[in-house]
Amino acid sequence: MAINYLYIDDNQDADGIITGLSLKDEIEINFKNPLGEWEKERERIVSDGFKEYDGLIIDLNLEEVKSPESNRFSYYKGSTLAQEIRNLSKSGQIRDIPIVLLSATKNIESFFDKTNENLFDLIVEKENLTPQRYIPFRNKLIALAHGYERINKVKPEVSIILDHSMEKEDLRFVGEVERALSDDSTHTFSKFIIRNILKKEGVLISESLLAARLGVDKGKSGDWNLLLEVISEKAKYKGVFYEGWERWWMSSVEDWWYGLEVKLSLRALKASERVEILTQVTGFKLVPLEKLEKSKSEQFWTICKGSGKAIDTIDGILVSGQDNLFPWQDKRYISFDEALVPTNLPAWTKVAPSEESKLEFLKKKFPNVRPTRH
């Protein structure tokens, strides 16, 4: 049976989004306008019809256009409706479902209260939802619906929820997941998993970081997908929400590496040495990554937050906003090249205060480079 999402928006023209996100036999998007009256809106979410929905997509500003049903403006925000749904689910009057905020950037910047962020599993700006991004977003909607069902069925077993043995994972990581899972609300645990595990490199890593740590230039390597398939058999994440976030367990990647009877760790080898071993063992055609112009090390271990290029942490500068990371989360860096001449400033904003002196040193070392001051 297809997953069923309710989409509430005062915009009358949502056909493009509905068509782009719908997929026969997998997911159906049912579009409705806000009702214009709070009591009627509340009646809708406690009705038997609402129980048929596996998730909700909602606009933030529901007050711009009159409801065609009541011919009235809805003097409440999507966040207000989301809060009511969370309250009702916590009291057991309705079941907990994923809620996704889909709104224009200007409305999020003008009307969104950051204290309401935990109400939503995802926050997506409409301008960023281009046709090219329909499939990834659709996958996340599917993952959220399946994930909520999965959490409700098997909690509180962490190893079952994440589909992975916890024996080799950091005890602090296991403890925090258990603590989050002990919360009565599914949406609280969902938010924790997405924000702190799936969206942050650490115990789980993305394909780009996996390639960097293997030293492989996946864009130039014809057999990268073959290698990825082999590694995925041992290390692919299959836990909750896996359909929307493709990740690999770093501990399992390392186990796979040592299973090749390699004596040295990935971290201790240059990219060319890692790829030479991989080529000899697998026979795949792989091309090693090359270091950036201003980098010294070829022992790649992270990804530049701005350019997406592989670097060693010694060739990186920490970006700001990382004071409250969990112990299992990797710190985010930008390359020296990116720090001097930003190519994607919105992705990292500014360097950490502790790295300002390092940036000043780089400016003196490369005086002919004209950086943008941060």
The fraction of residues assigned to DSSP E strands is: 5-15%
Q: What series of H and E elements makes up the topology?
A: EHEHEHEHEHHHHEHHEHHEEEEHH
* Rg from Cα: 23 Å
Annotated CATH homologous superfamily of the domain at 3-128: Response regulator
CATH fold-level assignment of the domain at 3-128: Rossmann fold
Classify the helix fraction into a percent range.
Answer: 25-40%
What is the CATH class designation of the domain at 3-128? Alpha Beta
* Total strands: 11
The pLDDT mean sits at 93
Strand order of the largest sheet: 2-1-3-4-5
Describe this structure in words.
Among the domains are: 3-128, 3-Layer(aba) Sandwich (Rossmann fold); 291-374, no CATH class. The protein has 14 helices and eleven strands. The chain has helices at 15-21, 38-45, 78-90, 105-111, 134-154, 158-161, 171-181, 186-198, 207-214, 224-235, 250-258, 271-282, 336-340, 356-365; strands at residues 3-8, 27-32, 55-58, 99-103, 122-125, 204-205, 248-249, 302-303, 310-311, 316-318, 333-335. The radius of gyration is 23 Å and the shape is globular. The mean pLDDT is 93.
Topology (SSEs and partners):
Blueprint: E1 3-8, H1 15-21, E2 27-32, H2 38-45, E3 55-58, H3 78-90, E4 99-103, H4 105-111, E5 122-125, H5 134-154, H6 158-161, H7 171-181, H8 186-198, E6 204-205, H9 207-214, H10 224-235, E7 248-249, H11 250-258, H12 271-282, E8 302-303, E9 310-311, E10 316-318, E11 333-335, H13 336-340, H14 356-365
Parallel strand pairs: 1-2, 1-3, 3-4, 4-5
Antiparallel strand pairs: 6-7, 8-9, 10-11
